[in-house]
Amino acid sequence: MSTEDIVVSSSTVCANCGKEGANNVCAKCKSVRYCNAVCKKVHKKKHKKDCEEFIRLATEKHNEELKIAAELHDEKLFKQPPPAEDCPICFQRLPFLHTGSRYYLCCGKTVCSGCRYAPQYDNQGNEVEKKCPFCRSPHPESDEEIVERTIKRVELDDPIAIHNRGNYYFLRQYGFPQDYTKALELWHRAADLGLSAAYGRIGYAYDHGQGVEVDKEKAEHYYELAAMAGDVLARFVLGIMEGRACNYDRALKHWMIAVKGGNVQSLDAIKHLYSDGGATKEDYMKALQSYQTYLSEITSSQRDKAAAFSSVEYRYY
């Protein structure tokens, strides 16, 4: 701790002669004041021991405060986040990978691949042309219609639509000009509305210098916000960062949480950590069990059929 962190004494009494109105502060401990440099010099030998003790106690207090703050932060950081939302149609947990579900601009719902590819019927039981599986709106027929629906959802403060519009600016899609500043602004807005992926996207931008200067501290900060909000990819990246710093216990904690959310990369990372002696066999077995539990929660015959329909594009785990 630097002496700049020590609060200057509010007393205006000179520590040497006792006069009021002293404004010359001890440069080291800042706990006493003097009338002038002469009083400070005269009192220096007498004050030296008290000065060192004050700095020591202040430093210990500061370090203890930092320790408590770090412990509270870790308590939040390593808390198991709530599981992913359920599909609004089949009420099963949505898969982690984006290929296992789709967001619909018409109603703002995210529907799993099984319900997305399930046949749709009219009132007479006849199979009909597919529409939105939740609200039955026709699919957009042009880029212009996609943009129009996106803008409407953005006006309703839909965080996914806001995040997607940021992507349009970033990637120059659907006729949007490339504007990194606007993209970052929209991602921040989506994050403030609770979208964990938006925090992760901001972290990735700072991590790799996409539209902003590379800033690893900011990247880690936003990855942590994303992870605490349930983004398992950000959690996996945090584990990688801790692993590179040889903080294997912290890396393992991150990956164990990510595995419960369906991140197979974290399962592979724990396997390699176990092979290198950084994790125990019990750790790896626990990770395998967590991943199997995740698979059992997202698997259904309808989703299996959807995955078989196109095993490359629509695989959901």
Order of strands across the main sheet: 1-2
Class inferred from helices and paired strands: mainly alpha
Relative strand content = under 5%
H-E order:
EEHEEHHHHHHHHHHH
For the largest beta-sheet, the strand count, sense and barrel status come to: 2 strands, antiparallel
Are there runs of 5+ residues with pLDDT below 50, and where?
Answer: 311-317
What distance lies between the first and last C-alpha atoms, to the nearest angstrom?
48 Å
- Quaternary organization: single chain
The tally of helices reads 12
Calculate Rg over CA atoms: 29 Å
Give the integer mean of the pLDDT values.
90
Tell how many strands the DSSP assignment holds.
Answer: 4
Basic shape: elongated
Helix content: 55-70%
